[in-house]
Amino acid sequence: MTILLCIALVLGGTWVGQHVNLLPISASSNAPVYDELFRVLLSIGTILFVGMLGLVIYSLIKFRRRPGQTGDGLAIEGNLPLEIFWTAVPAIVILFVGLYSYDIYDRMGGMQPLQHGEHGHQKMSTNQRIWGGIGSGTVSQAESKSNNPLPVEVTAMQFAFLFHYPKGNIISGELHVPTGQQVSMKMESKDVIHAFWVPEFRLKQDIIPGQPTVLNFTPTKPGRYPIVCAELCGPYHGGMRSAVVVEEPAEYESWYSKNSKEIISEA
Amino acid sequence: MTFANSPQANQVSPSLQPKGWLRYLSFSLDHKVIGLQYLVCGFLFYLIGGALASAIRIELSSPISDFLARDVYNQVLTLHGTIMIFLWIVPVVNGAFGNYLIPFYVGARDMAFPRLNAVAFWLIPPAGLMLISSYFITGAAESGWTAYPPLSITTPAAGQIIWILSVLLLGGSSIFGGINFIATILKLRRPGLKLMQLPMYCWAMLGTSILVVLSTPVLAGTLILLSFDIVAHTGFFNPTLGGNVIVYQHLFWFYSHPAVYIMVLPAFGLVSEILPVHCRKPLFGYATMVYSIMAIVVLGLMVWAHHMFTSGTPPWMRLFFTIATSFIAVPTGIKFFNWVATLWGGRISLNSAVLFSCGFIVNFVLGGITGVALAQVPFDVHVHDTYFVVAHFHYIVYGGSVFVIFSSIYHWYPKFTGKMLNEHLGRFHFVLTFIGFNLCFAPQHWLGLNGMPRRVAEYDPQFAFVNQLSSVGALIMAISTLPFLWNVIQSAFNGDVAGDNPWQGLTPEWLTSSPPPVENWQGEAPLVTEPYGYGITNEELAVEPSINDDIQIPQDK
Amino acid sequence: MTTITPLDETNKVQVSKDQEHEDHRLFGLVAFLVADGMTFAGFFAAYLTFKSVNPLLPDAVYELELPLPTLNTVLLLVSSATFHRASKALKISDSKECQRWLMITAGLGLAFLISQMFEYFTLPFGLTDNLYASTFYALTGFHGLHVTLGAFMILIVWWQARSPGGRITSENQFPLEAAELYWHFVDGIWVILFIILYLL
């Protein structure tokens, strides 16, 4: 009976992990990897939570003091094998989760040395350190598709993002990127800490004044997604939003050439 | 000398019962008075913090910023966080129950340093009032309870400075309390009482106090540097002057992550006291419980940077902090399995105290699971600083600590006052709180995953419905306070007389009258070597028979 | 009612001369010094991080002069020794000797403070000049505050030892012991500070 319940629990948890979708659509190359991790964590979490909930409720019902009952419960003070069991099992689960998330982290490019502007388009002072996080290295999958990441310089200020494309000298309030093309962003803040977050990309990176950060990603799905500031930055923090427009390469090219020309003609 | 003047020092009085309500407003040195001072004072601040939370939820029931001005909203959320952490949970789970119970548990007549103890308490009301009055006088701090520079340097300085001052005072109070607890537990134990015979709450408080003493001063130092930046225009954390904002985050979280354990470890201890009494079973796995507390203390000091995964920390640091953080789940898990094992096979009275404790177990397990998930860098990068995190830490500090505070009030109220609380109202309170809490915070997980950042006054309209759901939950939580308040107030006057030991508990605080006399016991302190010796026949009980005779005397009811 | 003989009479610290209480107060002081040490540890950590992460531009780097701080180090180390002499004198109930050594210790502390002030005035950078300057002043200033407090404590202890009915006798050495412990702690912090700030 107990074993059956456990199997049902594990199967149920796995099913929940696979079929309950709590996430927004995935629109970048690392989002499916993230979703994989999320599903595993959701499965494990569901199994643990439902299991503990069941145990507590079962104990409260089964072992409740019925009217007229007096006296104490069983004088069990402990059970060493049991203790070892529930030390070892969580430790193994944690170890598994840790290794698995390390693997995910690696696949997202987190362990690679920070790379930005490998094509020398940046004029960085040599003693300025670049900070980054996930997606700050070159995403390997994307690398095969395109060896030529699209550089974008992001400036955050209270309360807006500005996107500067050094190649076409475009300054835009919205981020336009083509699908399948790796984008390499160098982000700087003018005033306080902001954060660049695109929920559909599953990516977030703080934009820190005095310490440029980099964020690389490869969009995969055309659409218009919100860019959200995720670090309290002042009264209008909630209104500090922008959009990233992911377009097919052809559409992007037309947007690019249109805006690029305008800027040049002005100059 | 205050001691000689204070009413309860009147030891020659034939009745050892302290007299008069005024002593609760005095610089009393009695640990029980100080404990209740902490409790009531903390609860008043909880009501204020709760009102602020209501304001936040009202604002968030519509996607646009309409209820509060934007800067006022930021002040409100800053005050809400600061009050709930520094004026409600930390003082109550540590100061209130610690002061009341620890001297009983170690068999002492008071804390090691009663005067320091009173000073520690009396730092709190002025600090709290100063913090709250800043809202009315200059405008409160606007940079969140984390006060990240450079935002905290650029927002109006007066409010931020008052915030720093009051947090410094509260930190000082916390350090004094911690020193007192360490000295009391290690040095004031009754002769014959071994460390491994102490009730679990002592261990929890010992661990907590170690964390307090090691980490709070770092916060104090950091805030002093921050105040220099604001007042003297130094550049520690000001990037335009060459400073480094990330260093602040490291120093801040070196305190503020252990602060989570400062809030939940005592709660763990209190649950370990409550469950065995009402389950009529020994606490399962005493030794492993002790070791897991100490493991949490050690691990808790080296996981702080998991709050900074998106702050541009280097990869090795992320990896280290991911692993260290994940492994905290192991000792924490041990504690939860042990509690369930304590329930298993017991004779559980399904009263309010047990219900709140079990509510705590359920809520905290969920909060712990999301916590392990958040420790994983790739996971955290998506949900960091979103409502997922808000949901997670409310499950820890409200679903965890606050549920335990309520559970403890139901459990020890008879000892505090000598009167029983109304059980029906208590269960009603539990049901309302549990439903309201889960309705308020469970949907916020989804909000965070789908793109709602925290600390915003306005949001994408697609989240409106779920936010309204959450606001309804908050409303239920607010209402749930009413039966509780009515219960504690009217029971103090009209409650059933509790007697000395209504729950038939074995821990030392039950072996004296309710409320206890000034120096805790009429005769010698009882030697309780098995605080959880339930389910054992009377001859085997650890309470020495002669002591038992002693404590019969005050039972004149 | 029988007389109550509390097992632990700790709430009457002032009244009781029980040796046990002294222990607790010293224990409490040690715990407090641990906390205080953590504040310094936070400052040191901040300084070292600043140093490794935010290097100054070469023209802003200023080599600190060593003679004066070395003199300061010597002053404090000697004062630790003289304080130790004072407490040894008290142990053999030599109040006069104790007072003399206390005065010497306080004098050394004062000399340290004056020399520190002198250094402040001769340094070419001010509090807000750059990150280093700020951290330098914050660390040495916070330490100086401790020395000032310590010097006051010594003077109070000296005063108490001086008056014949005073609190400090060979039976009740707690104020002296506490001040001594604190003073050694402050000296120890200075040594670490000297190494990290001036030598590294």
Overview in brief:
By secondary structure, chain A is α/β, with parallel strands linked by helices. Chain A is 38% helix and 22% strand. Chain A has helices at 2-19, 31-62, 80-107, 140-145, 249-266, and strands spanning 131-132, 150-157, 160-165, 170-172, 175-178, 183-189, 194-198, 203-207, 213-217, 223-229, 241-247.
Structure explained in plain terms:
The complex is a heterotrimer of chains A (267), B (557) and C (200). With 267 residues, chain A is α/β, with parallel strands linked by helices. Chain A folds into two domains: 2-62 and 84-107, no CATH class; 131-266, Immunoglobulin-like. A six-stranded mixed beta sheet of chain A has the order 1-9-6-2-3-4. Chain A contains five helices and eleven strands, in the order αααβαββββββββββα. In chain A, α1 runs antiparallel to α2 and α2 runs antiparallel to α3 (80-107). Chain B is mainly α and 557 residues long. Chain B contains 17 helices and no strands. Chain B has helices spanning 2-5, 31-60, 70-106, 114-122, 124-137, 151-154, 157-187, 200-231, 245-279, 286-300, 315-343, 352-375, 377-383, 387-417, 423-449, 464-494, 545-552. Mean pLDDT of chain B is 88; it is low at 1-18 and 538-557. The termini of chain C are far apart. By secondary structure, chain C is mainly α. In chain C, α1 packs parallel to α5. Chains B and C meet through α4, α7, α8 and α9 of B and α1 and α4 of C.
